[in-house]
Specification:
By secondary structure, this protein is an all-alpha fold. It has a domain of 215 residues. A two-stranded antiparallel sheet has the order 1-2. The chain starts with a helix and ends with a helix. Keywords: Cell membrane, Membrane, NAD, Quinone, Translocase, Transmembrane, Transmembrane helix, Transport, Ubiquinone. InterPro entries: NADH-Q_OxRdtase_suN/2, ND/Mrp_TM.
Length: 478
């Protein structure tokens, strides 16, 4: 039991911190929000320092329910980084609107606990508990601005559709348990390999993948994403587009490789369909969007399609390319959303229309340059760093004899490049719109600068280190 508890030390640290901050916010009220944010950041740092699998072998705890390996460690570090950036961004955003409440850091920490359980799940029940802990906190975060009808609507839509997805996932879990006799990933894989894939197990796999696909915003389970991203407060949308995406993709990878490994031909067809549908719809649907947050929502759907191309390979190199893509993706996405946070009119009210970006290069050259860097990188335009993860997932697909899939992915990336370049054209070639309010949030500016440097050509210097880390993490699953 002591060994198992040691493996869950990051989750224990975050849980205790969340409970302590909950008590502080209950007694001190919203005036403790700023202090709670810094304490939450300290808790995330403490959790990151004690993640097993980074400097050691990790291990398996609670009789296989919890797996602490290098794969989980890599995903958790990305999750904690994204959660920390979301906390810093939210502090500045809500303070300017005068509605920053002390429960926000608590919800982020509870989400991080759920995400940690998701990426370390070795059992379908652990998977479900982690997913629900993340979901319950996320529903509240989406509706955090209670007086804003769009935020309330986003929270309600997310809750209703999330409940539906949870039901689908739970039904798939019950089918797999009924036909394999276990909820442990290893035992499910043994049962499938021994008796072959039965129709009941196949249906279970389909329902489980459908439930997880909702969390990763893969088509056709993407319908909540544009509405929730648009309605939720901008820092919350930034959080949804980064940390939960990493956790859900890592969970999906572990489930298909460890639990469904012997049924690769079955799950690969589902993954390929979702990959193609996501890259095509994510590219085409974004073209006509007038709202920058809705466009970034379709951008996230588009990028999930490319990530799934790497997963479809089903190899160690394919999984490593997925992890590499996630690391670069969260930098590009968080950077883009941080730029969106600076879109405020002269009275300080948030502006979300793409038309308001017109001529930004003349009214705010620094913000325009940062925005253009993230857009070019999301489009995968070399020499920016966003090109390299796309190259890796396509290479993994080709090496797995899925050349046609890589070719379709390359073709659909051209569609996505159109709307990214459209934003750059709006900022640099159109007549200037009214200037945005000058932001004085230094922390936000530093984060934008760091993200822009990472996705610039300087990011290529990190390739040797990231290659070693991702291949080591992927090797834990094979």
């Amino acid at each position: 039991m002591g060994h198992s508890l040691a493996l869950t030390l990051p989750e224990i640290i975050l849980t205790l911190a969340a409970l302590a901050l909950l008590m502080v916010s209950a007694y001190a009220g919203d005036k403790s929000a700023r202090a709670a944010t810094w304490l939450a950041l300290a808790a995330l740092l403490g959790a990151a320092l004690f993640v097993p699998g980074v400097f050691d072998e990790g291990g398996v705890g609670f009789d296989g329910l919890f797996i602490a390996d290098s794969f989980a460690a890599f995903a958790k570090i990305l999750v904690y980084i994204a959660a920390a950036v979301s906390l810093i961004a939210a502090a500045g955003w809500f303070r300017r609107d005068g509605v920053y409440r002390a429960e926000y850091p608590v919800l982020i920490l509870l989400s991080a606990v759920g995400m940690g359980m998701m990426v370390s799940a070795g059992d379908l029940l652990t998977l479900y508990v982690g997913l629900e802990l993340l979901s319950l906190a996320s529903y509240v975060l989406a509706a955090f601005q209670r007086k804003d009808t769009r935020s309330a609507e986003a929270g309600l839509k997310y809750f209703v559709l999330g409940a539906l997805a949870s039901g689908i996932l739970l039904y798939g879990i019950s089918l797999l348990y009924g036909f394999t006799g276990s909820t442990l990933f290893d035992a499910i894989a043994v049962a499938i390999s021994r008796g072959g894939l039965s129709n009941g197990e196949l249906f279970g796999i389909v329902f489980v993948l459908a439930g997880i696909a909702f969390k990763v915003s893969a088509v056709p389970f993407h319908m909540w994403t544009p509405d929730v991203y648009e309605g939720a407060p901008t820092p919350v949308a930034a959080f949804f587009a980064s940390a939960p995406k990493v956790a859900a993709v890592a969970l999906l990878v572990r489930v298909v490789i460890e639990a469904m490994g012997p049924a690769t031909d079955a799950w690969r067809q589902i993954i390929i369909f979702m990959a193609l549908a996501s890259t095509i719809l994510g590219g085409v649907a974004a073209i006509s969007q007038p709202n920058i947050k809705r466009l970034l929502a379709y951008s996230s759907i588009n990028n999930i399609g490319f990530i799934l191309i790497g997963l479809a390979a089903g190899t160690r190199e394919g999984v490593a390319s997925v992890l590499f893509y996630l690391a670069v993706y969260i930098a590009m996405t968080l950077g883009a959303f941080l730029c969106v946070q600076r879109m405020r009119d002269a009275e300080g009210r948030p502006v979300e229309t793409i038309a308001s970006l017109s001529g930004l290069s003349r009214t705010n050259p620094a913000l325009a340059a940062a925005f253009a860097t993230f857009m070019f990188s999301l489009a995968g335009v070399p020499p920016l760093f966003g090109f390299w993860p796309k190259f890796l997932v396509f290479t993994a697909a080709v090496e797995a004899n899925l050349t046609w899939l890589a070719a379709v992915g390359i073709a659909t990336s051209v569609i996505g490049a159109f709307y990214y370049l459209m934003i750059v054209k709006t900022m640099y070639m159109d007549e200037p719109a009214p200037a945005y309010e000058k932001s004085r949030d230094r922390a936000e500016g530093v984060l934008i600068a760091l993200a822009a440097l990472f996705v610039s050509p300087l990011g290529y210097l990190a390739i040797p280190m990231m290659d070693a880390a991702t291949l080591n993490a992927a090797g834990a699953l094979f």
